[in-house]
Structures are given as C-alpha cells and as structure tokens.
Amino acid sequence: MKTKRTSLEDIAKSIGVSKATVSFVLNGKGDEFNISKEKQKLIHDKAKELLYVPNFFAKSLRQGSTKTIGLVLTDISNPFYAELCKTIQEKLHDKGYNTFIVNTNDNKELEKSLMRELIQRSIDGMIISPANLIDELIPILHETHIPVVFTDRPGDDHADFVGVDNEKEAKKLIGSFSKKPKHLVILTQHSASVVTINKRIDGIKQICSQEKIKTSFLNLPEDQTEIDSIILRELKNGADSFLPLNNKVTFKTLSSLKKLKVKIPQDIRLISFDDNEAFAYMEPPISALRQPIRHIGIESVERMLDRLKEKKVPGKHLFLSCEFIERGSH
Asked: What total of structural domains would you count in the chain?
C-alpha cells in the first residue's frame, strides 16, 4: 500500500528533470515554456504511473480561486430540491466548477454552522435555499465577500434571487378549480420562517376574502394518524376543496382521503401547489401547479457566474412562471 502522497519532486527525480518543469507541464503550460512534446508525454506518463493527484488547496492558493460553489439546500429528500440540486451541479460542472452540497434539514442552527464551514473552505460563491430568514443570515454573510445567490427562497431586496412569485401563483390556483370552492382547506407543514409557504398563504387569503370563500388553514403534524383525524374533522365541517401547498403534504393528504374512502373529484376537489411525476399515474391523476425547477437551477447558476464577474452590481430578482397541469382531481 502507498504510504506517501506523490509530489512534484518525486516525479522530477524519477525522470531527471526540474520540479519547475514538471509543474509547468502538469499545469498545461508545457508549450508556453517550450518543453518538448516528448518530455511532456514522459512527465504525464510518469505522473500517471506514480498515481499523482494535484494538491487542490495549493493549486487554489496559486490561482486565487477554488472553482467551487457551495450549495445550501433545506431538504434534499424533497423531490423539488433533489431535481434543483441535480440541475445546479450539472450546470456548474459544465462551466468548470465543482459543487459542495450541504443539506440543512430546515434546521436553522445547522444551516448557520454549515454555511460557516463552507466559507472556511474558501469557496468562490454560495447558492442558498435558506431555512433562516435573511436577518439571521446577515452576520454570516458579512463575514465573507463571496457572491451569494438565493434560489427558490428569497434573501432580501438587495440580494440576487431566482424563483417563482409564490403569492401570485397561489392566487391563480383558486380560480383553477372546476367549481368555485365553498369551503377550501389549505394544508401545509412548515415553520414560520419558510417565506415561500407564507407567500402562498397570503395570496390565497387575499383571493378567498375577495371571493367570499370559507377557508381553513391547517399546519399538519408529522403523525399520519393525527392527520387522518384532522382531515376527517374538516370533511365533517363541510370542506369541498383541498389545496396542499407542496407535494409532500399532498401525498399525506391523499393517504388520509384514501383511508376515509373519499372520492376525488366526486366528493372533494384537490389541487397540489407543486407537482410530482407520480401524480400523473394516480387514479384520478392529480392536478398540480408545476414549478420550473430545472429553469430555476439553470438561471441560479447563470446568476452566480454573472455575480462572480460583477461583485459590486446590485442584486437582481428573477421570477419564473409556473404551469398548471390539468389532470382529473380539480
């Protein structure tokens, strides 16, 4: 077993050239320094033979850049964030950047700790879908001068952001039901700091108030049995329409309705704010608002690349449109 990491000096000694010559060749500057093609091949072959791995941090110190972007996500088990993560990582790789991914589980203290660790690793920039409100993150962001782009969940008016206008999109959904709701139940599982959900609720409240629609806003517990009881109570109170505010809550709601033998859309109508590919294969297929996840990821990377070049330019907000997918449940 190899006990010592191969160095540039090891390669140089093994073939009788200078350490500087090896460095020039392995950093792609062989032609620039008039090193023959034969010698360049010899050095590359020997580096491969000795299993040479470049020292990442030494290289970053020389170049003044790690070519690494930190990606801070709240819940990578959520299909929304899984797809967002995949897109961002792919696009950064295409642009020559590595991605350092951390998952906060919507834990505010863990988020702050992980963000500080990323900064200590000398990342070039950070793309964040925050668990904390911006007020709690400002002290950490002031510790560094790296560019930051907020994705899905906004930071503040001065920070770069890519996502959707949750209030506007939620308002449009109320008019998407095949029949005007008499008693609409809005279901979620969120903490008070989740800005996107709060915006959805604000939009729904405005429209329901204007349209004189009775509403119930429910922040569901984790236990499915408790959820079943809550759904049953709302049905007994005359609920005829349900609007879960993300796909994870939609699955929990559908589980309860199935146990209670409630028929969709005959007994109640349902629209999910947030789509999932499984919704198309259910009976009935679930109508949903599809967020442009891939587009959000692509634009977040583009905004980061722009920000790396223009660090002092004011932040920009890019709001992307959603698509209502009509299936059979609304």
From this structure: 3
> Which CATH number fits the domain that encloses residue 226?
3.40.50.2300
Q: What is the pLDDT of residues 56-71, one digit of tens each?
A: 555 554 555 678 888 9
Q: Is 128 left (phi over 0), alpha (psi -120 to 50) or beta?
A: beta
Q: Are 92 and 98 in contact (CB under 8 A)?
A: yes
How far is it, in rounded angstroms, from Cα 244 to Cα 188?
Answer: 6
Measured from the Cβ of residue 255, the count of other Cβ atoms closer than 10 Å reads: 14
Task: Return the structure tokens found at 108.
Answer: 């505010």
Q: Is the same domain home to 227 and 111? A: no
pTM of the model as a whole: 0.77
Q: Return the structure tokens found at 126.
A: 């950070």
Least Cα distance to 322 among 173, 138, 221 occurs for 173
Q: What are phi and psi of 211, to 5 degrees?
A: -90, 0
- Let me know: does 322 contact 291? Beta carbons within 8 Å: yes
CA distance 252 to 274: 14
Angle subtended at Cα 177 by Cα 176 and Cα 180, rounded to the nearest 5 degrees = 115
Shared domain check, 280 and 194: yes
DSSP state of 246: S
Tell me, yes or no, whether 154 and 301 share the same domain: yes
Give the pLDDT confidence of 133-151 residue by residue, as tens digits.
676 777 777 667 788 889 9
